[in-house]
Amino acid sequence: MDVADSILDLVGNTPLVRLRRIAEEEQLRCDLLAKVEQGNPGGSVKDRVAVAMVDAAEAAGLLRPGGTIVEPTSGNTGAGLAIVAAQRGYRCIFVMSDKMSDEKVALLRAYGAEVVVCPTAVPPEDPRSYYSTAERLVRETPGAFRPDQYSNPANPRAHELTTGPEIWRQTAGRVTHFVAGIGTGGTITGVARHLKRRNPAVQVIGADPSGSVYSGGTGRPYLVEGVGEDFWPATYDPSVVDRVVEVPDADSFLTARRVTRREGLLIGGSGGTAVHAALEVARGCGPGDVVVVLLPDSGRNYLSKVYDDAWMSDMGFLRAPGPVVGDVLATKDDRIPALVLVTPGEPGRAAIARMRETGVSQLVVSVTDELPLAAKEVTGTVRELELMDLVFRDASALDRPVGELCGPPMPMIGIGEPVARVVECLDQGPAVLVLDGGHPIGVLTRSDVLGFLAGRALPGAT
Q1: For residue 461, is pLDDT > 50?
Q2: Rounded to whole angstroms, what are the CA distances from 204 to 30, 166, 194, 218?
Q3: Which residue intervals of the chain bear CATH 3.40.50.1100?
Q4: Delimiting residues of CATH 3.10.580.10 domain(s) in the chain
Q5: What is the pLDDT of residues 394-450, one digit of tens each?
Q6: Active site residues
Q7: Would you say domain 314-456 falls under CATH 3.30.830.10?
Q8: What is the pTM of this model?
């Protein structure tokens, strides 16, 4: 009988498929092929790494029967480790950031794993960060083993021994370009080492979200999951990567949706990042070139985000027909700053001074004053009337930190949403925060909308 002894025997040997319709639309002269990693049992390329890291830990005596696997993960590595743990009788505790989709958290819990969710908007050294939390759990849990995919040599080695050889074999050695997103760097490093050993002329291109360190950023702010970093992992070898293509969130998400609707291939946002970069590469290639792009996972984990029109609109990735929020923002008096920030640690008197300097009546409270800002980094709102009332009742409020004085964040709305949506939101409060590609870019008030309506002489305007 043709039967696998366990689900782990089905890891690897994923298919290579031609992105025919996308290539035709782009009028490419080269072959554009996708390595579809969602065919692994856990639905992603990380299954390969999970098996390799556990095998190495068992061989080294670092993981023993009844032990616990603790790992900070964006979800896919966790799923792979959870599958291995289920087969071999280990307990799992996974630490995730709060920007990850609900589906990813639910998936890990479905395998019986424990999940600890940590805030995104804190630095790695903060005790609340998901790196610090994982380290604490390792210390506190008897028999714990942390695979640490960011420094574990078994990570890139898994791809050097499996993914790279598969691509070489499936293309009959004709591959000329390999494109993959860079997260831990294990996939692109391992595949590159094998392909360049077989043919040093093979070009290796990394796809990186705007803001990530690989393309020159600081690690913030971006929304795409499972790719990009805010530090340089030991598992990434930049010497084998020929080029890094920076990809904005909007291009990642819209490309993922395009691949799904054109090819019938449901991919995640990081797959969209990789395909967008691959198309940039492929446009400059000729008839003899073969571009292989690795699609790390399925879009099933992103149905509530990338494939939800409401979420995409709220984040400012989609534009409705007719007058939209961005049109209102464009008519604001340019003498007043579109967005004025204050951090939670600044004193109340600093917030008052900033309002007087800029002529605004509300400030956005965020964990950083560095732009561009991510929606997740907004923690509250300071409003003129509320602050005046606090100071009138208690003058010491002037020296208290803004984090103690502010109210909740103002409602957020996408730049491409209809003007009617702004009106609805302003029924609930005096101002809204406008997002463009997940980044706050401005504040709108009722007077802003009234001025826009009067200027456009829309039906119903007074």
Answers
A1: no
A2: 16, 16, 11, 23
A3: 7-44+156-309, 47-145
A4: 314-456
A5: 899 899 999 999 999 999 999 999 999 999 999 888 999 999 999 999 999 998 999
A6: 46
A7: no
A8: 0.90
